[in-house]
Amino acid sequence: MKRSRYLLGASMISAVLIASACGNNADENNGADTNGNDNGANETNETNDNDGNADNNDAEADGDAPQGGSVTYGYTAPFAGLFDWNWYEGADDSYPLTIFNGEALYDVDQEDEFNLAPRLASDWEWSDDNLTVTFTLEEGVMWHNGEELTAEDFEFSYETIAHPDYDGPRLSNVERIEGFDEYRAGDADSLEGVEVVDDYTLEVTFQEALANNLEELWPYPSPKAHLEDIPVDELEDAPEVRENPVGLGAFEVSNITPGETVEFTAFEDYYLGAPNLDEVTYRIVDGAQAGELLAQGEVDIIELEPTQASPLEDNEAVTLEEIEALSYSYLGFKLGEWDAEEERVDMNNEKFQSKEVRQAFAYAIDRQGIVEEFSEGYGTVINAPESVIRWSYPDESDLNQYEYDPDRARELLEEAGYEDQTGDGFVEDPDGEEFTVNLAAMDTPADIAEPRAQYIIQTLQDVGINAQIMDGQLLDFNLFYDLVEEDHEDIDIFLGAWGLATADPDPSGLWRSNDFWNFPRWDNEESDELIAEGISEEAIDQDYRQEVYQEWHQLVNEELPLIPLNSPINIYGINSDVGGVTAGVRHAAADSHEWYIDEE
């Protein structure tokens, strides 16, 4: 086995980073992916994924790579088929989107402290008042339908998301634009703050001068000529999105088998030059067989669980690459539900209103044991909902550590009035009512999902909490997130993960009381105020901004609407004959035009 290690050093943690999660992280809002691998992450608003770190077999000089052939990119959860950046919700769809339509206004340069680098925008310039940014777009960038990319495609994308009939997860990426409120309310025919100066010049004016306006602005255009005749409330299910999507990437979609495969063929008019390969296939595989399929050559690129990677360490046909991920996993509490009419959370679940009860859960769960037992030590236990490679990761010395302490868990339960009144070994609530807890969890990764869920259940039962897996079984990836989003009445706690779009730490999109992706449904006025302060004009000063986020993390750490579990290390398995692959902090699907096969 060829082995290469690409772990980001400690310098990346303290580096002054400018990039933000675009979409605002859900990739935190910044783009969040709800990733099926809990030791990986989920992604919701994602900025461009070309933020890689390591190239596999990068000895081939540019322009000298072998030509032709096909590569298969594997994933272990069925895709939903929302092949449009404005609508997608999970990593399952973001990977094929990256392959055929991964072009954005800018790249997030992982090798340069996550700063923004030109991509579709060759340049941009700010006004003196920091309210208006003017983008100069690359010329000659072609959509797969033969239309040239223009500023109108960005305007169309922003107006689609801001439209009154749009119900997708990207609102936070356009809500700062001047005129958003009027357009969203249906009182204006266009977004006042978006001006198409000419085909290659776009001006965007914001309502306020905030610290991360550029990083939070949605960076993806939408093919206007392909979609403009479809009503916004029909776009999500339109054949033009699910069956015949159009992109700007090096490969175009040639065939989709729902939930199973997406096939791509080379797009010769790709603006950075024709790709090396003839074809790429995105294939859904059984997660339990991922390592075996890689060794057999059935897939060429796939993220592996540590238990799957270990048997491949002596296999010369496989290269393993490790990288600290821009993501985190967590155990969430369902504190309430989403009020669609008010467009905000309603923290109405009495079950977990006691902070002491939530803290008892944290002490009851052996988080380090989870990392050791199910990830072979790959990952870092965290006490904040943040990736350790972000500059904003807080000073742990100021946080409650919640180290595994069953006795402390029992003490907190007793202090909150939860005691075993029937002698069955499980506590009742302060009113003497039965206290049962349902855990919702995904069935991936296939080899560890069930034992990991049972491990958590057992640790909770050990301190007297009558916990069980909801309905006695794990859930399919898409069903899991459907139920979490719908606040299914049977869910009490849930295992999830967030893939963070880029390095900007703005929690908007995941954590405000009016954020749909605030899955715990946590409503906290102080949190909302700190989140707003963290992107204020004063927060353009990096030191000030870090102080704000330290305070915010301390608040979350104390109130504990969710229990942070770990910041993972991702392992990618790559066929040793496949070169040019970029292993990034979230996936390895970027820059597919550079992939090649060298069988010599």
TrEMBL record:
GO terms for cellular component: ATP-binding cassette (ABC) transporter complex; periplasmic space. GO terms for biological process: peptide transport. GO terms for molecular function: peptide transmembrane transporter activity. Residues 116-508 form the Solute-binding protein family domain. Residues 1-21 form the signal peptide. It comes from the Bacteria. Keywords: Signal, Transport. Belongs to the bacterial solute-binding protein 5 family. This is Oligopeptide ABC transporter substrate-binding protein. The lineage of its organism: Bacteria, Bacillati, Bacillota, Bacilli, Bacillales. Residues 29-69 are annotated as: Disordered. Residues 29-56 have a biased composition (Low complexity). The keyword DNA repair does not apply. PANTHER family: OLIGOPEPTIDE-BINDING PROTEIN APPA, PERIPLASMIC BINDING COMPONENT OF ABC TRANSPORTER. The keyword Signal applies. InterPro entries: Opp4A, Peptide/Ni-bd, SBP_5, SBP_5_dom.
